[in-house]
Amino acid sequence: MTRRAGVAARHPRPVSAHGVVARRARLASLVVLTVGAAIAGCRGAPAAPAPAPVTPDAPPRATAPADPGRAVVRGDADATWRALLAAYADLAIPVGARDSAARRVASAGWRGHRAVGRIALRAAVDCGSDRMGPRADTYAVALEVESRVSAGDSAGTSVVTTTVRGTGTPVSFQGPPVPCTSKGGIERALHDAVAGRLASR
After folding, report:
1. Which residues does 121 contact at the CB level (< 8 Å), separation at least 6?
2. For 2, phi and psi rounded to 5 degrees?
3. What does the H/E/C string look like for 2-61?
4. Does residue 177 carry a pLDDT above 90?
5. How far is Cα of residue 15 from the mean position of the Cα atoms in its chain?
6. Taking Cα atoms as reference points, which of 167, 127, 161 lies closest to residue 143?
7. What's the CA gap between 127 and 181, in Å, rounded?
8. What is the 8-class DSSP label of residue 114?
9. pTM for the model
């Protein structure tokens, strides 16, 4: 080591204030650039696709896109007729008339208060309302249900049509009976029961 180099090592040249500021500015620039590149990399990475939801198998349902009183099911007319009779039993609908040749069945004496079988009356019929609320919740309702089976337009399908009418009578006071119109709850439950019976063959 030369004498000049040794002197320089023992006595380093002082750094000016301007040099310190410039060095700190360069370091800050490098930090900003590094952080910016990391953020850009995270933003550019494609998001992992969400897993597909897992849903339990739904029970078979009849096809009734608009009219709850009409449903298309998979099954020939004879099989659908047998499934319809079984569906009446499943829903505890008492059968009053049955015509196997015409594939027509009708209820008799089906009455309920608040519910008929497993179906809430407020979901089945609309009897209007009074100061106590919906009459279907407080009135006794007598129902008339009639169903028919006919061949469908497509091979291997059948059409089930059902009409529901009702009459409500007050229970807690004397009053005239009122007509009740269907809300589709009985028709849908009946047609879905038919579809389920056909699917389980």
Report:
1. 112, 113, 114, 115, 136, 137, 141
2. -75, 165
3. CHHHHHHHHCCCCCCHHHHHHHHHHHHHHHHHHHHHHHHHHHHCCCCCCCCCCCCCCCCC
4. yes
5. 75
6. 167
7. 7
8. S
9. 0.67
